[in-house]
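How a chain folds remains the central question behind the approach discussed here. This step matters because it turns folding into a mapping between discrete strings. The sequence in question and its structure tokens are set out directly beneath this paragraph.
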Amino acid sequence: MEPLSNRRPLAEELAVSAARRVAEARPIVMLDDPHEAVHEARRTAKELRGLLRLIRPAIEPVYAKYNARLREGARRLSESRDAAAIIESIDEHLVPNARGPFERMAVAVIRRRLVARRETLDEIWLRDAALDLLLALEKIPIVVGALRLDLPEAHAIAAGLTKTYRRGRRAMVQALRDDDPDVWHEWRKRAKYHRYHTELLLTSDPKVLKDHRTACKRLTDALGADHDLIALEEFLDIHGDLLGRIGRGTVRRLIRRRRAGLRREAARLGATVFGLPGRQLYRDTVARWEVYRPEEHIDLPPDPVGVWIDDIAAGSLHIEIVDEPLGTPELADTSFSVEIGTSALEPPARENHASAKQAEETQ
């Protein structure tokens, strides 16, 4: 999504960014392969939902209405997109990592049969559903451009950014304590919204945010691949007739081996992306935006949660919850270590609480 500039009021900037994103999607949805049309329509819907989330605290009733519409429109297309994503995950994560002729043959068989199954989907229905979602997307720039924010611009952005960021950190903490696929999928969604927000705010501080955007992209790619491979494993459970017993076992072992590496990578990247306390993120965002687009200052709201992430060493990730998270008192005043393996880790320099706090004060 195109970053926001400082040439117009915030609502107009958001509307322009949304309009350009819809304009990019329009020819793909209308003219390309139906499966690619579905992918582009769903991706655009997610990005525009992320745009609305950036200023959610300042437009809550409007956000609830249009977020629900876009979510339901994208959900209608989930079956087709899931099928395509599984095939893409096979190409990217299983084919290169298959060991020996038997694994490669099993992967080739399951891929061929998944492609054949995808082609049975009704392409006319897919195109119509993608166009319906596109029509809903066309309304978003108009709605956003007419918004009146309940907060000054810098604080509207900081509040929405920090709310999504904190949810992402809590989702990460839960995921690193729990192997449940639904918990990891929740972290993936939160991380993806934070990535969209980083892209929108990129021009407010390119030197800092470019590296952060890259880390966000790598994190969401790892979490997305993990999710797609889980979907493939579930598909094999339901459609066992696509492969023999030995073939299914071979593909499952390959899937789990690759997922272990992806989760180690996600844990390492998550500590980078979600390592800053929420209050500091709020302050930094306000300061950036007021320099980028000067505006009246108001007092900061209280900070409801802080999460320190440190001790990323070979084999463990240490997480400490400080303060009391709103709505999650069971996580307050706790710390724990998560074993995440060693083979895919590149341990960065260790940093203690004192040095982390000194770094914050110098920013």
Q: What stands out?
A: The beta strands are 306-313, 315-322, 335-341.
